[in-house]
Structure formats: C-alpha cells, structure tokens
# Entry
Amino acid sequence: MTDRPFLEISQLTARLKGSGTPLLRSVDLAVPAGSVHGLVGESGAGKSMIGKAILGILPRSVEVATGAIRLDGTDLQSLPPAERRTRVGALTALIPQDPLTALNPSRRIGPQITDRLVDILGWDRARAVDRARQLLAEVQLPDPDRILRSYPHELSGGQRQRILIAAAFAAEPRLIIADEPTTALDVTVQKQILRLIREMQERHGTAMLFVTHDLGVVSKVCQSLSVLYAGKIVESARVEDFFRAPAHTYSRALLAASPRYTDPHGSLMPVPDEVMQAVRAEVAAFDEGRAAHV
Amino acid sequence: MQLARAFLIRLLTTLVTLFGVAVIVFFVIRVVPGNPIAMMLPPGASDADIARLKALYGFDKSIPQQFVIWLSGVLHGDFGTSITRRQPVLDLVLNRLPATIELAGMALIIATIIGGFLALTGTRLRGTKTEAAIDVGSGMALSIPDFLWGLLMILLFGVLWPVLDISGRVTPSLQLPFTTQFYLTESVLRLRFDLWRDIAGHMLMPALALAIPLSAIIGQLLKQSLKETMHLDYVTLARTKGYGENHVILREALRNAILPTLTLIGVQFTFLIGGTVIVERLFSYEGLGNMAIDAVINRDLPLIQGIVIVFALLFTLINLAVDMCYALLNPRLRHG
Amino acid sequence: MSEPPSDVLYGVEHLHLSLPDLTRKPLLGPAPRIHILNDLSFTIRRGEVMGIVGGSGSGKSTLGRALVRLLEPTGGHVRFDGTDITHLGEGELRPLRRRFQMIFQDPMSSLNPRRTVGAIIEAPLALHGFDDIARRSAEALDQVGLPRSFARRFPHELSGGQRQRVGIARAIAMRPDFILADEIVSGLDVSSQAQVLNLLEGLVKDLGLTLAFISHDLSVIRRLCQRILVLHRGVIVEEAPSDQLFAAPQAEYTKELLAAIPLPDLDQVWA
Amino acid sequence: MAEVTTDARGLVKRRLGLRLWLSGGWLLVLTLAAVFAPLLSPHDPLSQDLLGGRIPPMFFPGADPTYPLGTDSLGRDVLARLLYGGRIALIVALVAGLATCVIGSALGLIAGYFRGWPDMVISRLIDIWMAFPPVLFAILLIAVIGPGLTSIILAIVVIDWTRFARVVRAEAMAQGAMDYVASAQVAGRTRAGTMLAEILPNVLPTVVALLTLEMGIAVIVEAILSFVNLSISTDDPTWGGMISEGRTSVYQAWWVLVFPLVCLFLTVLSFSQLGEGLKDRFDPVLR
# Structure
C-alpha cells in the first residue's frame, strides 16, 4: 500500500442553505487503505453528515461550503456531478443502518446485488451473478441461488443485513462507509454482524469509515477514531491511545457516560456542565476565529 | 392460501354491500309520494284501469313482498320493466352502460397521464418553484368539482372559442354502422377515424371535466408517496451505487410508491363514475347517469332500482379489481 | 430467608399471555394464538428496583404491560399489594390505577402532542381527585429538574431527554407505590441517558418507590437494579440479585448476552 | 436541522397566510352581501319584466345602469338573484356542513376508537354508502322527501356523512395506537373520556379542514340539485337554478351563466383553502 491515505478530507465545511448554520466545521480526516476509522458523537454531532458528504447524498437543504474530499488523490468536489457519481459508485459502498428498509421490497435480491456491477461498472450479467453467488457464500448465507431469487420480505433481519454487507463488497470498493450498521439489531446478532464486517474488511483490504454512537463498538472494530461535537472534530486518535487516555475533556466525559456493566459506578456518568460549557466555548471560539479570518 | 382467504372475505362483504344497497334503494323509493301509475295513464282513466296496471307492476302487494319478488327476479337476470319506456330495465341499462364506461374510462386515462406526469415532474424538481406551482395548482384543481369544470369548459370551448360540441354523444346526422354501444372503441376497431373524431370530440369536454379533479388527486397522492419513498434507505443506497436521479425515481421509487396510492385511486375512480351522473346531464350525454336523472324525475321505480344496482355493482367490482391489482403488484402478497 | 407477605408488592404466579394471530386466522373459527409469555412466576418486593432484561421478541414489554394491566393475562395471577388484579375490569381497577404508574419508551408517542406539558401532568391528578393540582404539577417539574415555565410548552418543543423527564414527572406526580419504566433511555444519547438514570435513581430513593425497569441493555440495568430477571422467548431463564448475576451468570442465554456486549474497553475478550 | 424546518415552515406559512386572507376575505364579502341582500339589491329578485329580458351587464352595448349585471330571459335582475342565491348557499353550507360534520365525525370516532362491533356496523354502512353514486342518491332523496331547503340539508347530511366517518375513523385508529392513549388508561381515564379528551383534540384539525371542504361541497350539491330543478322551487333564486337557466341560453345571454358560476368557483375554492389555512395557523403541532 502507498503512504498516501486512500480517503483524505481537508477543511470540509458544510452548512444549511439559507440560514448558513454550520453543520460541519473544517473537518480534517485521513483513512489509510485497509484501515477502519470510527466516527463517534451524539446525535446531531455531524458524524453521519461526513459519510453523506463523501457519498454525495447530503440532504438538499445542506451544502458543502469549502473543503476537499480526496479519494485516491482525486478531489471529488472538483468533478462534474455525473462523473463524481459514477466514481463514488465504483470506489465506495455504503452499509446502511436499517436492514429492513435498505432493500427494495419490490425487487428480487439478485439484481439488487448485481445492478451496480452491470449498470455502473459494465460487467456482463453472468459474471455479475457468479460474483453475487460467491459473495453470498462469503457472508455465510446458505443456498445462494434461492436467496438471489427471493424478495426481501422472505428473509430475516439478520439475513438481510448479511446481504447488504455482501452487496457492499460486490464491486471490490476501496472504501466502505458503515452508517450505524448494527444499531437496529439485538446485541447477540450485533456481535455476529460486527465480526463478519471485520472479517470481510480484512480479507478484502478495504478502508472503512465506521459511524456509530457506541464507543464499545469502536473499541472492537476500529484502529483509529474521531470524536465529533457540533460538526467539529474535537479529537482524533489511535484506538489504543484513546481508550487508555482520551486527550480531550469532552472525549473523557463521553467515555465515562458510556455504559459498562463491569463498572457500574464508573460508567453512565452524566457529562458535567463544565465540560459542556468548555466544548461549546471551543466551538464558538472556532466560529469567531473563522469570522475574523474572512 | 392467504390470498384466497382474503379474496373470499372480500367477496362476501361485497355481497353484503350489494344487498344493503338493494334494500335501501328499494325501500327509499317506495316512500315516493307521487303515483307513477297515474302518470302513465291518460287523465280520466278508471279505477279499474289503475288497479290492473298496479297489479301488472306488482304495486298491489306489500313492500316486503315486492322486494322478495324483485330480488328473485334480479337473481334470474330480470330487473323488471321500465314504466316510462316500457322496455325491460336490463336492456335499457345495458344499452346505456357502454357510453358511461367509455366516458369514465377516457377520464381515468386522462387523469392518470396528467396526474402521473405532475407527480413525476414534482418529484424530479422538488424544492423548486415548479414543484410549488404544481402543489398550489393541484390543491386548487381538486377542490373544484367536476360539475364546475364542466360548466367552465362549456363557456370556454363551447361559447367563447367554440371548437367542441357541448351536447350529445355523437352528431345526430351521422350514420353509425356500429353493432355495440361502445362507439369510441368500435370506431377504432372499424378504422372509422372520421367517426372516432366526432365521438371523441363530444366526449373530450365531459371527460376532461371528470378528469381534472382526479388528476390533481392522483398527482398529489403519488407525489406524496414518492416523496416518502425517496427518503427510504434503499433509494439512498441506489444513489451511492452511482445511479442518477431519473433512474432512482423510476426504477427504485415509483413501483413502491404506486402501491399505497392504488387503493386510494380506486376509491377516487368510483367517485369519478358517480360524477358522470351530473356531467352527463350537463353535456346531454346519453349515458346511464343521464337516464337515471330522467328516471327519478319520472318516478320510474323499476328503472331507478336497476340503475342504482348497476352502479353499485360497478363500484364494488372496481374496488375488487383494485384489491386484486394490489395483491398482484405486491410481492409480499404474491409470494406470501 | 423468606420475606413476610406484606413485603411483596407484586406477586406474579404462572403468568401466561397469548394473542390471536389474525394473519393466520381461518375463515371460520378462532385464530391460532401466539404465546408471548409462558408460565412466569416472580415477586417484586416493596422498595426494590427490579430489572427485566431481554432481546427483541423476549416478551419483556408485554410482561410490563400485563403488570400495569394494559393487557389482560390469559392465565395465572397478578397480585398487586394483595389484590388479584389479573382479570379486574377497568371500573374496579380505576381506584388502584393511581398506585401503579408507567413511563413509556417513546415520549413522542406517549405525550399527547396537542396538550401542554402542564395539562399532561395535571390530567391524571384531576382524575384521581387530588387537591392543589397546579402546585403538585409544578413540584413534579421541580423534581425532574425542568423549569416550571415548561408547563406551557408542547411536547414537540422539547428535546428527547426533556420529554422523557415529562413522562417521569407525570408518573411521580401521582405519588404511586410502583412505577414501570419500559426502555425509557433506549432512544436517548449516552449523556442524556446518564442524566435520566441518575434522576430516576434519586427519585426512587427520595420517594420510596418500587421500580420495575425494562431494558435490553444489561449495563443500564446493572447501574439501577438490585435484582434482575432475564427473559428469553417468553420464559424467565434466570432470576438473580444483580451482583450475583454479573459475577456468575447461570443460564446459557445470560452468558451469551453478557459476552456479546462490546465494552468500551480494549482488554475485554470479545471476538 | 431544526433551523431548516422552521425556515421552510415559515415559507409555507406565509403562502398559506395569504391564502387564508384571500379565502376568508371572499367568504366575509359573501356573508355581508347575503345578510344585507335586501339593502344591496336594486330590484326584487323575483320581479319579472318580460320586455326587459336579457339586458347585458355594465359596459356592454345595450346595458341598463339599474341592472349592473344584466337580466335573465324573464327580465329578472341577475345581481339581485345572485345576492339572494348567496343567502341560500351560505345557509346550506353552514347548516348542512356542520350537521354532516358532527354526525359523520362522531360515528367515525366511535368506530375508529372502540373498534369491535360498533366498527363492524359503521364500516359496513360506509361500504354500502360508498356503493351509491352520491349525486344520484341526493336527487333520489329530494324526489322522495320533496323539494325545499330542509330537504336539501337533510339530503346532504345523508349522502355525505361517510366523508367524515371514513377519514376520522382512520385517524382515530392511528391515534388509538399511540402510547398516550395507553398512558391515559394507566392514569385511570374511562374509554369514553379518553376518546373525548385525548383522541378528539388530535383529530380536530383534520375535522376542521374537512368541515370547510364539506361546506364547499354542500354549496355545490345545492347547485347541482337546483340545476336539475329539484332544489327549493323553480322561482326562488339559487345559483344552481341560475346556472341551469344560463346553460340553456348560453349563446344568447352568457352573463346569466357566468356570474353565478364565478360566485360558485370562488366560494368553493375559498372554503377549501380556508380549511388548510386554519389548520396550518391554529394547530399547535404545526405551529
């Protein structure tokens, strides 16, 4: 692998159209090929927004104001829309949150796995179907031919999540964005799915951006992480360093607020008001600094 | 199995509904104060004449007795004889029904095309001024009923800019070589496009009057449904695969968006057929509804009963058909 | 050591609950029944905090709703403070209803969107003939740490954590003996989760409440509960004091559940 | 995120605010005109002048300034008939609209919230009613009970209660599944109490929007019945009667058709837009 990170985001700023409220504040991020990077934060912190900005699926009310998103060195923001779309389609994939709504209920599973290969990458159909079959075996789903012919409602939630993982790896993407892929699942199923994602990621050497609110999950699947507050990265660190000693007070508070049954009195601690005030002040100071520069 | 059971239950409730309609219309119209028999006879007819005629039409029996006789007749395909027209009710109804079906069918086709176009355009251009204009326009269009659209069209295309005929189904002087009453369909099949043009010209305004509110409703419902579908994860997923907006709307969203609107559109279509009654009157179009109003005004009880039952049958059949379509289009039910 | 009977607030014996499966109903005759709860027996003692844990489909919410008689059990007995409430009609239940309250999972659904927070808290008080309703509702807001001015707000004008506090205020304003909390923190961010749990912990102590706390999250349960009931597919697979359950889980399912939780901790053996 | 929704809301509100004012304005003008019809009418709406038939309205050749909107074929003043016709239209709209609303909503609420046998009965009735073509049903009823203002109102209530019942039933069913209903039960509220205190406020916005819609529909039904000569009496001035007459003489005297048609258009449109506007303005959830 090269030294250069596969995904490189620099100074990415996104805001609401109209009011101009900032949603992402100068986000810098680098994910080397084959490595898993976690994005953590509470709801509204902008962690999903980063993935959406890369994939080009931001809500219409949101615009990217400044910054660059480089995939393999090419800045996506400078590409014309149609080219950006096919490039993103060829190089990346998404594992969505809710397996129950992420498959089209009126289409069979087969085409939903192969359509990208045929339509975007120009494979011939037979080869794409072979590939789909092979992937279904890889995610440990028995009887791939039956599944390819099935409709989503004929399969269980766990099966559907496996299919979505298979579909994500179908085109050998270089980067996968996993957006809370196990939040909707029971903890025992979550474990199986997380292990499967890890295995697949390692085998295919894919870079991964793993969006989650659960620091426990991060400690199990990621090599590095960024903690977000109000669209700003307050800390980026390697996982070993972070869980031994988080650098930022907000990160520390977030870690102390996380549930940990092994330590009933040292976990689920409310974030102290001073910490909230401090991190808010930091964001405000950042905004003022930007305003002063402009 | 599941499907067969659902279908059986629907069939049963349909029969209950039809029976209810029959009971209500039968008893309601027998409270009519005017005496239909008296209207048939010349002034000065003897009491004996009246009694003879009453017996002929069965009006001398008690109302429940009359109902049983009528119902058993209906089950044998005998809807009685029209008092004013002195012909079997079934013949009269079957003679007029095709005109109404063609009118309603044309209106439905127009409404689906316009409504579908509005919904797709509004979805494709969501967030723009075009979408806002479609919303406001269809909001107004659907609050104006067919009756007013018909009158407006008479003024616009009948009087102000007289390009279309405002009354009748076909120009009376034309020779019609048709064997059925489906004039529009038969004119196409016989390749008589001269006649087709005349018939379609007569039909266009009443059909448009019926279609405009429905097209606005279809447009709104389908657009709303599309909007909800466009937010679902599988649509987002399709975008990340590299597909463009048109593909996403047409292949991923449309089919799933149509399903929930289908049942609603079925109900709206029955409303449209209900609207033919007054629109046919407005355009002197010789259909079932126009005949129905005459029948009420003339107190032609057997004819009223027959027409109402036929309408009810039509409505329930449409709802049944819509449910079947729903089941066929929905993989969840098809492979249940 | 057996407790004297007056110590038992809830006594549940051989509780069964099944619902008709209308999707598989034959044309004639009754629908087959889905058995959701099978032969559950346990007690909840006065002043204790009981945790009920299980995955989706375990029947934990159904059990909760049977305890506060939102559902009628199909078999067995539920005794509340000595009264058999298993099959009581609404009329007979009404005087008892003040004494067992419930906090719901989704405050967006459980708070009437078209009533103000004040009205939401006061309506049950009025029903049960409390005096000084305005004062009681204001005090309830104080107790859950919301400003009194919130009484004039509508639910959609609050944040998730604030809404859940309103749900708690509504329940404690009635001065109940027992509160059932059904997954009340699962929709919240970790920081609000911690706050709501702290609040509930304090209220239980201050008001001498008995609490049944339903959750899918064993970490949350451990923080709050003295005794834990593990439910799996409608059956109690394990019932134990909290410390004992975490120190030495007995049932296979409990072990599996514990082993699956990803702790924010690099030393955990997980994979 | 919160910001953008408020913004969009604000935009919509401004647009609807305008709609609310326009529609409310027209209905106010109409109400005033109907109330003060005797003062505003230059002529008796019934007095005929066979020599002064088909006088065109103002600004057209041959117009008579005392007949600002012209006369019909019997020489009756179009403006006077329009004003008096507005009275009847408004009475029908208010009385029939409200009666339909109360009866239909009550049945829908009971069916949707209590379910069980009341729902079975009411739903079956709705099914039967939906199998009738409504206009034909109305005409039939008027033929049975005889013409007159009361008959019209009665006919509208009988044919249109299902519109409310259907929508309110569905809405009440959806609301009944919400936890705030379970919460009311935990609090010890009776079933009927829950229906009135918890469910009703939540279906009310829908009911209000339907009510104004129904008022517009009532005006139309009255016009349709007058159009087929089954309304009040052939003499009394109604918009539908004027339209019926105007339809037959549209080539000779377009104004007899145009003015009542414009009034009907504006009234029906205003009623429907008023409902949407009110809902948006006064519903706390949308506000």
